[in-house]
């Protein structure tokens, strides 16, 4: 037991035995009055006082040892350590024994409730994950059927299908990132290949909104997980498309930092007071609420993916002028063993 814990125990013990001190002092006072009224020798009173103090000190020492053991066990007690209640001294008061029995019962109920909740949550998560995978099939089927039509309505359907697919992928990514054992396979990946896949996915939105894409091959090789890096770029590109009604979206390498990818748009931007909160889970900002386009998860997931990949994500924006997203793809040198 460290010094701080011992001090807390002593302080708590003194507070617990305060009534005993009051009673002891009261008894000593009564005996003093009796000795005084009976005109007994002072030496006899002092001897009785010393004997009472000695016995009281022994009593306090015994009580402190018992109290310290009980205090330590209860202090360290948690739902996962309920078995430590068995370490409590058997010679405790009947009232304490009732408390311990009640605590044991409540902790057992808590464990059972937590286990039941965890099982239900796991079942719901499995069902939701299965549903998300299954919904991809009708989305793909609708997309294939829609490709043969060139009407204005068909183009609008294509855009909505892209958004629907985005929301589905976002939900799946959220579930996967919440799992501690989320799979990450690091390798040297060609950044241009990943960018081209993301741009191709959103080509229908570029065309429909009349946005210009400013992109030249970067010829960059980065150490990352290709699948998750593509998810990251798709999410950031989707955000740019969502909040850029006209103008240009540029994808380029930061001239001052060779391993930093930049996605810049000329969209509506983000207000300065909102920038510190854009990575918060569920935060959509004024633009998201006005246009009813935001789930509040996109940038939250983007930051989380970057953290898992070991990359750095930074966003600078000015309302009415656009947003600049920088992804530092550099990582510490890793030794690879065969």
From TrEMBL:
GO terms for cellular component: plasma membrane. The chain crosses the membrane at residues 21-38, 44-62. It catalyses: ATP + protein L-histidine = ADP + protein N-phospho-L-histidine. It is a multi-pass membrane protein. Coiled coil: none annotated. GO terms for molecular function: ATP binding; phosphoprotein phosphatase activity; phosphorelay sensor kinase activity. Residues 130-333 form the Histidine kinase domain. The keyword Membrane applies. One of its GO terms (biological process) is cellular response to phosphate starvation. Keywords: ATP-binding, Cell membrane, Kinase, Membrane, Nucleotide-binding, Transferase, Transmembrane, Transmembrane helix, Two-component regulatory system. It is found in: Cell membrane. This is histidine kinase. SUPFAM superfamilies: ATPase domain of HSP90 chaperone/DNA topoisomerase II/histidine kinase. Its EC number is 2.7.13.3.
């Amino acid at each position: 037991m460290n010094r701080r814990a011992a001090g807390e125990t002593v302080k708590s013990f003194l507070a617990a035995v305060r009534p005993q001190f009051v009673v002891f002092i009261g008894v000593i006072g009564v005996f003093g009055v009796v000795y005084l009224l009976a005109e007994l020798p002072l030496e006899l009173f002092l001897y009785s006082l010393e004997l009472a103090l000695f016995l009281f000190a022994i009593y306090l020492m015994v009580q402190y040892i018992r109290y310290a053991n009980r205090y330590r066990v209860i202090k360290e007690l948690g739902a996962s350590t309920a078995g430590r209640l068995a370490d409590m001294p058997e010679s405790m008061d009947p009232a304490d024994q009732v408390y311990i029995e009640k605590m044991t019962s409540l902790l057992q109920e808590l464990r059972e409730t937590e286990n039941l909740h965890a099982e239900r949550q796991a079942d719901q998560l499995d069902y939701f994950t299965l549903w998300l995978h299954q919904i991809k099939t009708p989305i793909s089927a609708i997309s294939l059927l829609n490709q043969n039509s060139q009407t204005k309505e068909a183009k609008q359907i294509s855009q909505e299908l892209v958004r629907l697919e985005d929301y589905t992928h976002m939900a799946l990514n959220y579930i996967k990132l919440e799992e501690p054992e989320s799979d990450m396979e690091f390798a040297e990946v060609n950044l241009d290949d990943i960018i081209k896949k993301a741009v191709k996915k959103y080509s229908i939105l570029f065309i429909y909104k009349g946005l210009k894409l400013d992109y030249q091959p970067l010829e960059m090789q980065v150490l990352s997980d290709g699948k998750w890096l593509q998810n990251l770029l798709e999410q950031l590109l989707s955000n740019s498309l969502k909040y850029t009604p006209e103008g240009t979206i540029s994808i380029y390498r930061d001239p001052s930092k060779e391993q930093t990818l930049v996605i810049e748009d000329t969209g509506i931007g983000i207000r300065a007071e909102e920038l510190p909160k854009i990575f918060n889970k569920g935060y959509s900002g004024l633009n998201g609420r006005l246009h009813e386009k935001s789930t509040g998860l996109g940038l939250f997931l983007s930051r989380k993916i970057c953290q898992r990949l070991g990359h750095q994500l930074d966003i600078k924006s000015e309302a009415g002028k656009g947003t600049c997203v920088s992804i530092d793809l550099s990582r510490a040198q890793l030794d690879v063993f065969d």
